[in-house]
Amino acid sequence: MSDYEEAVVNSSHANLAETTETGNILVVNGLRKFFPVLGGILNRTVAEVKAVDDISFSVRTGEVLGIVGESGCGKSTTARLLMHLIPSDAGTIAFDGQTIGGDLELRGMRRQMQMVFQDSYSSLNPRLPIEDTIAFGPKVHGTPADEARARAHDILRKVGLDPAQFIRRYPHELSGGQRQRVNIARALALEPRLLILDEAVSALDKSVEAQVLNLLLDLKLELALTYIFISHDLNVVQYISDRVLVMYLGKIVEIGAVDDIYERTLHPYTQALLSAMPSMDPDRRIETPPLTGDPPNPINPPPGCRFHTRCPFSEVVCATREPELAISPATNGAAHRVACHMRSAGSGHTQAPA
Amino acid sequence: MSRRALDEKQQATVDAAQVAVQSRGYWATVLVRIGEDKVTLVCGAVLLVIVLSVVFADWIALADPYKADMMKRLKPIGTPGYPLGGDEMGRDMLTRLLYGGRLSLFMGVTPVVTALGIGGLLGLVAGFLGGRVNMLIMRAMDVFYAFPSVLLAVAISGALGAGVGNAILSLTLVFIPPLTRVTESVTTQIKNLDYVEAARASGAGNLTIIRVHVLSNVLGPVFIYATSLISVSIILASGLSFLGLGTEPPEPEWGLMLNTLRQSIYVNPWVAALPGLMIFMTSLTFNLLSDGIRSAMDVRL
Fold first, then answer.
1. Is B213 on the interface with A (CB under 8 A)?
2. Is ipTM beyond 0.85?
3. Which chain B residue shows the shortest CA-CA distance from A124?
4. Residue B195: pLDDT above 80?
């Protein structure tokens, strides 16, 4: 029995267990990353870009968590922090209940957690044949060369590329969709349990995007994967996600099941995002832009609620006090949380529930 | 023909083309492209002839490069027994050009190769580690940039004294800064690409990442730059010898020969120009060859 078949069998047991009460594969607590802005003759820190500011969330085993938000809201920084590609300033990340860097070694974590990058071109070494690119990870972790190569062939077949035809090819000989499949194969070569997809399909054209999305869903079932799916494309996120996390200027503004977010939207920012979503239906055409202007500078984010400068419902309380990400009385279930004074009882906002 | 059949036929052509492309690897593609470039091929051939005849000078040369004959001084090109004439001491020019090329090529290649090793390593470290290490190394290199390269070479070998070893040492020092800078800038670019980040995400250490992912991508551009430096090095080495800082007479060397034949330029200009012509040919072919390889290696065009 191959490693993969074993993984599939094991995972189906895991899936059964999880239907009763899902375990969290990843728990993020108080994660923060400020990038220093250096200036002056002594290169001192004169300001900080608050890229990710104190966010906490968890990812359940076997789910797809979508992360959406405008560009510059901290989606990719979050992904890089989760992968420990850049050090975090504060906060903990626990994988399977083990704190990374503490109980779980970084190297061990990297076997379990992999990432697919957005730019399929720059994420493949142009001088390395596809086979070597995919086999690189297993080799680093001590798999013998020919075993790693065999695994590369296996995975290449899984992502829908014929090994006989592709192993000796170089990235420049592949199309965009093929390259992204290779990227997915490279990430899967370490047999991870959690895959972070950072805008993994954004650069592909629509038909290829659909193929890759379906491939991702198939692989998820087959290999019992958990996805964190980062995208700015709300249609794609709706299609693939179980739960959605909405970010604005380094903060989580709303998190909940995909239907709650898309149909029972609570946060004005999420509403604005959703109404900006292009639709195929001419009856749903909108004439006015739902939101104007750019997000404020993350170097000096506005006080209080960070969205109040662009929010149509902004009141005095919004500019002074920061809303907490909390369960709202307006929601039907416990899993839907929002950071808005309008949804929080006794916040002082005129539209707040009593 | 039905449309479907047409599509299938087209698809078959595309597949065949893909198989053709796929069947050769990167370096094979580069070779094919060089083969299509006439200028590069001719330059490569000329350079090969020069290098081979210089290396096998012992078998080709007709006379002793040191044997002077006062009666044969400054004979014109084509004198029997002196195919390329005689120099100011009556020595056979062809023989001296062949033996002189040994030293000239050696003094051209050695400094660049040594500097490539040292500068390449420094640049790789500076580029990959970045931050303070980068600043330390690169600012130290900037000090060397304050002097023009010719002046720096003359100053260093002047301070160390004449001789082949000192000339090579001074040229090496001159070539380390530019090679460090080129390697550093290429490494910095590559370090920030996603595939290096992906390699790090798969748990590889710095050394493995440098070996597998950085080196192979840095080496190409740096190597090409170094090739173009060889012609500069040949000219500088000849210049040093011309100034009396490199080889010393009666040792044959193109730059030195150019210097000693200088006085005879009115008596026999053709013979006096021969060493200069050799320097010119060698550096030109080196330059054009490195240009050709550069464009052939840009497969992504």
1. yes
2. no
3. B195
4. yes
